[in-house]
Amino acid sequence: MRVGYGYDVHRLVKGRPFILAGVDIPHKTGLLGWSDGDVLVHAIIDALLGAAGEGDIGSHFPPGDEKYKGIASLKLLEFVRELLRNRGWAINNIDSTIVLEEPRLAQHVAKIKANIASTLQIRLELVSVKAKTEEGLGFTGKSQGVAAHAVCLIHKEV
Q1: Of 49, 87, 100, 137, which has the fewest CB atoms closer than 10 Å, so is most exposed?
Q2: 78-126 pLDDT, tens digit each
Q3: Reduced to 3 DSSP states, what percent helix, strand and coil does the chain have, rounded to the nearest 5?
Q4: Banded pLDDT at 158 (limits 50, 70, 90)
Protein backbone atom coordinates (compact mmCIF):
# COMPACT_ATOMS: atom_id res chain seq x y z
CA MET A 1 0.00 0.00 0.00
CA ARG A 2 1.09 3.57 -0.69
CA VAL A 3 -0.18 6.94 0.52
CA GLY A 4 -0.24 10.07 -1.62
CA TYR A 5 -0.85 13.69 -0.72
CA GLY A 6 -1.88 16.45 -3.10
CA TYR A 7 -2.33 20.19 -2.75
CA ASP A 8 -3.37 22.83 -5.24
CA VAL A 9 -4.44 26.45 -5.24
CA HIS A 10 -6.04 28.66 -7.88
CA ARG A 11 -6.76 32.37 -7.92
CA LEU A 12 -10.38 33.55 -8.18
CA VAL A 13 -11.03 35.92 -11.09
CA LYS A 14 -14.00 37.41 -12.89
CA GLY A 15 -15.00 35.99 -16.26
CA ARG A 16 -14.10 32.35 -15.55
CA PRO A 17 -16.40 29.47 -14.56
CA PHE A 18 -16.18 27.99 -11.06
CA ILE A 19 -15.77 24.27 -11.74
CA LEU A 20 -15.16 21.54 -9.19
CA ALA A 21 -15.09 17.92 -10.42
CA GLY A 22 -17.03 18.89 -13.52
CA VAL A 23 -19.75 20.74 -11.59
CA ASP A 24 -20.19 24.32 -12.82
CA ILE A 25 -21.08 26.20 -9.65
CA PRO A 26 -22.78 29.59 -10.07
CA HIS A 27 -20.55 32.32 -8.62
CA LYS A 28 -19.39 35.85 -9.41
CA THR A 29 -15.80 34.64 -9.88
CA GLY A 30 -14.17 31.50 -11.20
CA LEU A 31 -10.91 29.59 -10.96
CA LEU A 32 -7.99 30.80 -13.05
CA GLY A 33 -5.95 28.06 -14.70
CA TRP A 34 -4.54 26.72 -17.95
CA SER A 35 -7.13 23.93 -17.89
CA ASP A 36 -10.58 24.49 -16.37
CA GLY A 37 -8.81 25.42 -13.12
CA ASP A 38 -10.44 22.60 -11.12
CA VAL A 39 -8.40 22.92 -7.93
CA LEU A 40 -9.99 19.86 -6.29
CA VAL A 41 -9.33 17.45 -9.14
CA HIS A 42 -5.79 18.80 -9.47
CA ALA A 43 -5.09 18.01 -5.80
CA ILE A 44 -6.54 14.51 -6.24
CA ILE A 45 -4.41 13.95 -9.34
CA ASP A 46 -1.28 14.96 -7.44
CA ALA A 47 -2.18 12.64 -4.55
CA LEU A 48 -2.70 9.68 -6.90
CA LEU A 49 0.44 10.38 -8.95
CA GLY A 50 2.49 10.87 -5.79
CA ALA A 51 1.30 7.61 -4.25
CA ALA A 52 2.25 5.74 -7.41
CA GLY A 53 5.64 7.47 -7.66
CA GLU A 54 4.67 9.03 -11.00
CA GLY A 55 5.61 12.67 -10.48
CA ASP A 56 3.09 15.49 -10.36
CA ILE A 57 0.36 17.02 -12.48
CA GLY A 58 2.73 19.48 -14.15
CA SER A 59 5.04 16.72 -15.38
CA HIS A 60 2.15 14.96 -17.14
CA PHE A 61 0.08 17.99 -18.21
CA PRO A 62 2.43 20.99 -18.46
CA PRO A 63 0.88 24.44 -18.26
CA GLY A 64 1.41 26.22 -21.55
CA ASP A 65 0.91 23.05 -23.60
CA GLU A 66 -1.88 23.97 -26.05
CA LYS A 67 -3.45 20.50 -25.96
CA TYR A 68 -4.39 21.09 -22.31
CA LYS A 69 -5.67 24.65 -22.67
CA GLY A 70 -9.20 24.76 -21.26
CA ILE A 71 -9.37 20.96 -20.90
CA ALA A 72 -11.79 19.50 -18.38
CA SER A 73 -9.75 18.27 -15.44
CA LEU A 74 -11.90 15.14 -15.25
CA LYS A 75 -10.29 14.20 -18.61
CA LEU A 76 -6.89 14.51 -16.94
CA LEU A 77 -8.17 12.34 -14.08
CA GLU A 78 -9.18 9.67 -16.63
CA PHE A 79 -5.59 9.62 -17.91
CA VAL A 80 -4.31 9.20 -14.33
CA ARG A 81 -6.81 6.38 -13.72
CA GLU A 82 -5.46 4.51 -16.74
CA LEU A 83 -1.84 5.21 -15.80
CA LEU A 84 -2.42 3.71 -12.35
CA ARG A 85 -4.22 0.68 -13.81
CA ASN A 86 -1.42 0.10 -16.31
CA ARG A 87 1.08 0.12 -13.45
CA GLY A 88 -1.02 -2.34 -11.44
CA TRP A 89 -2.38 0.10 -8.83
CA ALA A 90 -5.92 0.21 -7.44
CA ILE A 91 -7.45 2.98 -5.34
CA ASN A 92 -8.43 2.19 -1.75
CA ASN A 93 -9.87 5.63 -0.99
CA ILE A 94 -9.55 9.37 -1.49
CA ASP A 95 -10.16 12.01 1.17
CA SER A 96 -10.20 15.67 0.16
CA THR A 97 -10.87 19.11 1.56
CA ILE A 98 -11.65 22.30 -0.36
CA VAL A 99 -10.73 25.53 1.45
CA LEU A 100 -12.77 28.59 0.45
CA GLU A 101 -15.00 31.28 1.90
CA GLU A 102 -17.57 31.18 -0.87
CA PRO A 103 -19.52 29.88 -2.64
CA ARG A 104 -21.07 27.45 -0.20
CA LEU A 105 -20.71 23.92 -1.55
CA ALA A 106 -23.07 21.81 0.58
CA GLN A 107 -25.67 21.42 -2.18
CA HIS A 108 -22.98 20.42 -4.72
CA VAL A 109 -20.88 17.93 -2.74
CA ALA A 110 -22.94 14.85 -3.68
CA LYS A 111 -22.52 15.55 -7.42
CA ILE A 112 -18.84 16.40 -6.99
CA LYS A 113 -18.23 13.07 -5.21
CA ALA A 114 -20.26 11.17 -7.81
CA ASN A 115 -18.26 12.69 -10.68
CA ILE A 116 -14.93 11.78 -9.06
CA ALA A 117 -16.04 8.22 -8.28
CA SER A 118 -17.49 7.75 -11.75
CA THR A 119 -14.38 9.09 -13.49
CA LEU A 120 -12.10 6.86 -11.41
CA GLN A 121 -14.53 3.93 -11.75
CA ILE A 122 -14.58 3.33 -7.99
CA ARG A 123 -17.42 3.05 -5.48
CA LEU A 124 -18.90 6.32 -4.24
CA GLU A 125 -18.14 5.52 -0.60
CA LEU A 126 -14.41 5.49 -1.43
CA VAL A 127 -14.49 9.26 -2.12
CA SER A 128 -14.75 11.89 0.59
CA VAL A 129 -15.13 15.60 -0.19
CA LYS A 130 -15.33 18.23 2.53
CA ALA A 131 -15.45 22.03 2.36
CA LYS A 132 -14.04 24.36 5.01
CA THR A 133 -13.78 28.12 5.44
CA GLU A 134 -10.83 29.92 7.02
CA GLU A 135 -12.91 32.38 9.01
CA GLY A 136 -11.77 35.30 6.85
CA LEU A 137 -8.05 34.56 7.28
CA GLY A 138 -5.45 34.38 4.51
CA PHE A 139 -5.95 34.45 0.73
CA THR A 140 -8.75 31.89 0.88
CA GLY A 141 -10.49 33.68 3.72
CA LYS A 142 -10.35 36.92 1.75
CA SER A 143 -11.87 35.15 -1.29
CA GLN A 144 -8.76 35.73 -3.41
CA GLY A 145 -8.37 32.04 -4.17
CA VAL A 146 -9.35 28.47 -3.41
CA ALA A 147 -7.12 25.70 -2.07
CA ALA A 148 -7.64 21.95 -2.03
CA HIS A 149 -5.94 19.12 -0.17
CA ALA A 150 -6.26 15.43 -0.99
CA VAL A 151 -4.87 12.23 0.40
CA CYS A 152 -5.26 8.77 -1.07
CA LEU A 153 -4.37 5.18 -0.37
CA ILE A 154 -3.56 2.84 -3.25
CA HIS A 155 -2.50 -0.79 -3.37
CA LYS A 156 -1.01 -3.15 -5.91
CA GLU A 157 -3.55 -5.40 -7.62
CA VAL A 158 -2.75 -9.07 -7.18
Answers
A1: 137
A2: 999 999 999 999 999 999 999 999 999 999 999 999 999 999 999 999 9
A3: 35, 30, 35
A4: confident
Q: Are 5 and 151 in contact (CB under 8 A)?
A: yes
Strands (E) across 37-157 are located at 89-99, 127-132, 145-156
**Domain 2-156 CATH (choose: 3.30.1330.50, 2.60.40.1400, 3.40.50.1010, 3.100.10.10):** 3.30.1330.50
115 contacts 40 by C-beta, under 8 angstroms: no
DSSP assignment, residue 125?
A: G
Rounded to whole angstroms, the Cα distance separating 38 from 33 reads: 8
Peptide bond into 103 cis (omega under 30): yes
Residues 3-49: tens digit of each pLDDT: 999 999 999 999 999 999 999 999 999 999 999 999 999 999 999 99
DSSP designation for 103: S
Instruction: Please state, in angstroms and rounded to a whole number, the distance separating the CA atoms of residues 109 and 146.
Output: 16
Segments making up each domain of the chain, as ranges: 2-156
